[in-house]
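Regression test case RT-17, inverse folding.

Input:
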């Protein structure tokens, strides 16, 4: 364990937000859009370069690694700096406000608007409104197929307070925390091994949380290393992350090279055929490397030109509405084909992708400004000040707790 020194990379505040990370959400969301459009137009299956579109579901790996990093960081930061730990009830309240209202709206619209979902059973409503649609075969409905990853992420949200306590402990020991956070890979390894033994379904159980514990754990481990570096408590080995971040083009070039490997059959089929356990495990590993190589230059190191671009107003706006783009783009794709009476697996990739992005961003903007941001603001204000009881005149404002760096606004 290292003793406290000055941070290796000076920052305005060790507890400050990392605005450049907002843009990574946008990259993940756009990648998922490209993946779905490629499948819908059959370009994924019928062209040589379709393998790149098939592997754009790497955007999910980016989402999961980011979630592990951003949500675990406040716990690690609290112990490392001697601050109060995040309150569990406040954490759950903010997570619920962040994801549930917009998600429920998307579920209602898809069930009401899309003919393929009619009739909607009580079971469909119950499963989708409670994020349990992934625990039985064939339960994902039209316009909502992408929500399997959201249901998986909700499990991580629920487990995180316990995982954080286990990983951080009572005293700040960064090496131990990194190792414990990384142990999620052991759960994923055991889960994939059970698939190989035939104990688990290679189609159904690839959507469950244990399959992706390694991705969430990697994000948590990076968060612990980041806090250690910024508080001067990191061993010398951790500084390789800052060194890598100083060469973003090299990291992203390496990510592209790993992506090229993933486009081959080694990572499994391009269509909906279930992968073998070896193919699935290989894909998980390659995607984890890609997500880490994309994230490190944006999260670590000093200020670079790449971080300036990622922190620009347009990039951060895309990050703000990226959740809405993720939620609404499958509905947009369905409506394009429905209104134009297009058969499935037809159409040009570029025009369908452009239409999906334009209308998907429009839906996302309405969702963010009309639902997500107002409810988050209202909910936060009500939690801070009970109705009808404002602060007394001249009294100081209550001190803010550590910032919720996972919230995009």
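Golden output:
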């Amino acid at each position: 364990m290292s003793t406290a020194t000055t941070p290796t990379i000076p920052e305005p505040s060790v507890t400050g937000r990392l605005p450049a990370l907002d843009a990574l959400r946008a990259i993940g969301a756009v990648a998922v859009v490209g993946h779905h459009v490629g499948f819908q137009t059959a370009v994924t299956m019928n062209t040589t370069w379709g393998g790149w579109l098939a592997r754009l579901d790497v955007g999910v790996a980016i989402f999961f690694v980011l979630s592990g990093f951003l949500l675990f960081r406040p716990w690690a930061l609290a112990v490392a700096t001697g601050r109060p730990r995040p309150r569990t009830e406040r954490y759950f309240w903010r997570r619920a406000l962040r994801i549930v209202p917009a998600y429920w709206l998307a579920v209602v619209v898809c069930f009401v608007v899309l003919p393929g979902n009619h009739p909607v059973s009580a079971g469909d409503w119950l499963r989708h409104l409670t994020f349990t649609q992934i625990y039985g075969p064939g339960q994902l409905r039209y316009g909502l197929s992408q929500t399997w990853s959201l249901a998986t992420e909700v499990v991580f949200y629920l487990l995180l307070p316990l995982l954080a306590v286990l990983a951080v402990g009572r005293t700040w020991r960064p090496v131990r925390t990194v190792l414990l956070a990384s142990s999620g890979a052991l759960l994923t390894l055991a889960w994939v091994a059970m698939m190989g033994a035939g104990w688990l379904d290679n189609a159904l159980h690839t959507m469950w949380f244990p399959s992706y514990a390694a991705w969430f754990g990697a994000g948590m481990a990076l968060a612990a290393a980041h806090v250690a570096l910024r508080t001067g408590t990191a061993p010398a080995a951790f500084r390789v992350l800052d060194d890598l971040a100083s060469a973003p083009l090299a990291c992203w070039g390496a990510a592209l090279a790993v992506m090229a490997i993933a486009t081959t059959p080694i990572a499994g089929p391009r269509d909906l055929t279930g992968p073998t356990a070896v193919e699935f495990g290989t894909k998980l590993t390659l995607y984890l490397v890609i997500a880490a190589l994309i994230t490190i230059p944006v999260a670590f190191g000093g200020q670079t030109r790449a971080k300036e671009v990622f922190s620009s107003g347009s990039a951060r706006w895309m990050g703000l509405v990226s959740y809405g783009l993720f939620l609404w783009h499958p509905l947009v794709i369905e409506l394009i084909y429905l209104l134009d009476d297009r058969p499935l697996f037809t159409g040009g990739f570029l025009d369908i992708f452009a239409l999906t992005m334009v209308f998907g961003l429009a839906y996302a903007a309405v969702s963010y400004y009309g639902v997500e941001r107002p409810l988050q603001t209202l909910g936060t204000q009500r939690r801070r000040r009970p109705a009808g009881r404002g602060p007394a005149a001249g009294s100081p404002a209550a001190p803010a707790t550590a910032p919720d760096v996972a919230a995009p606004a």
